[in-house]
Design a protein that fits this description.
Radius of gyration of chain B: 17 Å
Helix content of chain A: 55-70%
Order of helices and strands of chain B: H
Strand content of chain A: under 5%
Shape of chain A: globular
Number of strands of chain A: 0
Largest interface: A-B, 39 and 27 residues
Structural class of chain B: mainly alpha
Structural class of chain A: mainly alpha
Oligomer: heterodimer
Largest sheet of chain A: none
Helix content of chain B: over 70%
Order of helices and strands of chain A: HHHHHHHHHHHHHHHH
Number of strands of chain B: 0
Strand content of chain B: under 5%
């Protein structure tokens, strides 16, 4: 930045101890806070998944009662989406975007602090709701009426938590867009920006356009519950299906909010370890923008069975299938980047390659679900559960793992333990496939989702899925060990860390100093 | 890339984005009130 150099003195004047973290306006501190919050919530929501899988280990009711089971599925979904993946990406954005565009910090550092610190409040509300009379909300993460109009106090708490999470997302995205548009280093034109910055810019626009729609929907739920309106209450002339339309107008772009930053991370990692520039940079940018635009016109595919006209079903079917085109462009570009590359397979690259293979499986099963007559069979079965876990676990989550391993040496100044990283990778990948692949068969055979008990013929595949889930869960403890080990010490990381890495973040020391790019770098 | 005085431009961009978000929120509720429900 060409601002007054006199302001660049006294870099390390910040409180220590707890107050450093409460009052911090530093993008790296706030990035770390987001990532730790996401990590803790990952353990919470992951434990809920294990309760679900423990109950489903065999038919009948063994571990929990059906109502508590439904509370677990609801909270698992809500926390994983709003408390794990979104905050993790916000953590990456805070750490990496200023470093990658040569900016000294985010555009609104105080709002950045606020945007983070409302999150633990919302997360706590969701967890505390378990202890309220009647337990936590059990109506599913999609919050559909009539259940969400009829439930007890915990439903209000859940709605309030979603409001807070939404406000945090909007503050974060305003900050990210403004930083990227206004604070790039001289010479860093839009088409020179790293792909991760591009994908986050587009994601932030999606957030601004859709999170207020969710906020509107849950506000109307609240007024239906307490203030005598009947937006979604059929008894008063309202329409519960209307909620589904509004929710999924937010919900489908939300899917891309979770996955576009993942595309960005993979587009950074693969060129580094293939030691080649990214194939088709411009087409990657246009494909990302196309996916974002198309995401606004496909929401109806989540509700093919509500009784919409055939014309609408056809529209949503074809528009959904259209998304496969830009997504295919991306997958082909990643493969072309690896083609004849001088590849090595450190842990970030392993997760990135697994992402390309497994996310594509999730993409294909998405296409299967997009075919209206097929979806009418598969709606609310385990096939859908298999589909979105391939997209979100081996997609979003694996990209988060890839990104953490990739940038951890830059964040901590130490190389992580490669042997443990590889253990984490293989245990996660094998565990994830054992868990979710059999769910395709369960769904095709007709097993409904969100149920604590099931018919005997589904027992074998469920047992396999539960064993895989515990394997996956256990492997995350290895991840935790890798993180703690790298933070505490280890081999010193060099500035560039990876032989094939390019970009501004690799020009600063490892660990990145508290303040970076106070004088803007010149990008050629 | 307003490097000379980024603060003012940042505030302008931020306020514009916040206005869009508030507008989308208000329009969602307004459109629902005047749409299929409350009939």
């Amino acid at each position: 930045m060409a601002h007054d150099a006199a302001h660049d003195h006294g870099h390390e004047h910040h409180p220590s101890g707890l107050m450093r973290w409460v009052t911090t306006t530093n993008h790296k501190d706030i990035g770390s806070l987001y990532l730790w919050f996401a990590g803790i919530m990952f353990l919470v929501a992951g434990s809920m998944a294990l309760i679900i899988r423990a109950e489903l280990f065999q038919p009948g009711l063994q571990v929990v009662n059906p109502d508590f089971f439904n509370q677990m599925t609801t909270l698992h979904g809500l926390i994983m989406v709003f408390g794990v993946i979104m905050p993790a990406w916000a953590g990456f954005a805070n750490w990496q975007i200023p470093l990658m565009i040569g900016a000294p910090d985010m555009a609104f550092p105080r709002m950045n602090n606020w945007g983070f610190w409302v999150l633990p409040v919302a997360g706590s509300l969701l967890i505390i709701s378990l202890f309220l009379p009647g337990g936590a909300a059990a109506g599913g993460w999609t919050m559909y009426p009539p259940l969400f109009i009829q439930g007890g106090m915990s439903y209000d708490v859940t709605i309030f938590a979603v409001h807070i999470l939404g406000a945090s997302s909007i503050m974060g995205s305003i900050n990210i867009i403004t930083t990227i548009l206004n604070m790039r280093a001289p010479g860093m034109t839009m088409m020179k920006m790293p792909l991760f910055v591009w994908t986050w810019l587009i994601t932030a626009y999606l957030l601004i356009a859709t999170v207020p729609v969710l906020a509107g929907a849950v506000t109307m739920l609240l007024t239906d519950r307490h203030f005598g309106t009947h937006f979604f209450n059929a008894a008063g002339g309202g329409d519960p299906v209307l909620f589904q339309h509004i929710f999924w107008f937010f919900g489908h772009p939300e899917v891309y909010i979770l996955i576009l930053p993942a595309f960005g991370v993979i587009s950074q990692v693969i060129p580094t370890f293939a030691r080649k520039p990214l194939f088709g940079y411009a087409s990657m940018v246009y494909a990302t923008a196309s996916i974002a635009i198309l995401s606004f016109i496909v929401w109806g595919h989540h509700m093919f069975t509500v009784g919409m006209p055939a014309t609408a079903q056809l529209f949503f079917m074809y528009s959904t299938m259209l998304i496969a085109v830009p997504t295919g462009v991306k997958v082909f570009n990643w493969v072309a980047t690896m083609w004849k590359g001088s590849m090595s397979f450190e842990t970030p690259m392993l997760f990135a390659v697994a992402f390309v293979c497994l996310f594509t499986i999730g993409g294909f099963s998405g296409l299967v679900c997009a075919i209206t007559p097929v979806d009418i069979q598969l709606q609310d079965t385990y096939y859908v559960v298999a589909h979105f876990h391939y997209v979100l676990v081996s997609g979003a989550l694996f990209a988060i793992f890839a990104g953490v391993y990739y940038w951890l040496p830059k964040w901590t100044g130490h190389m992580y333990d490669e042997r443990l990283g590889k253990w984490h990778f293989w245990m996660s990948t094998i565990g994830m496939n054992i868990t979710f692949f059999p769910m395709h068969f369960l769904g095709l055979a007709g097993m409904p989702r969100r149920t604590a008990d099931y018919a005997l013929q589904f027992a074998d595949f469920n047992r396999i899925a539960s064993i895989g889930a515990f394997m996956f869960g256990l492997s995350q403890l290895i991840f935790l060990a890798v993180l703690i080990k790298a933070i505490k010490g280890g081999q010193k990381a060099t500035d560039r860390v990876w032989e094939g890495a390019h970009g501004l973040e690799w020009t600063v020391p490892s660990p990145a100093p508290y303040h970076t790019f106070e004088t803007a770098p010149l990008v050629k | 890339m307003n490097q000379a005085n980024p603060k003012r431009k940042n505030v302008r961009t931020g306020l514009l984005l916040a206005a869009v978000a508030i507008g989308v929120f208000a329009y969602t509720i307004w459109a629902t009130m005047h749409g299929a429900s409350l009939k």
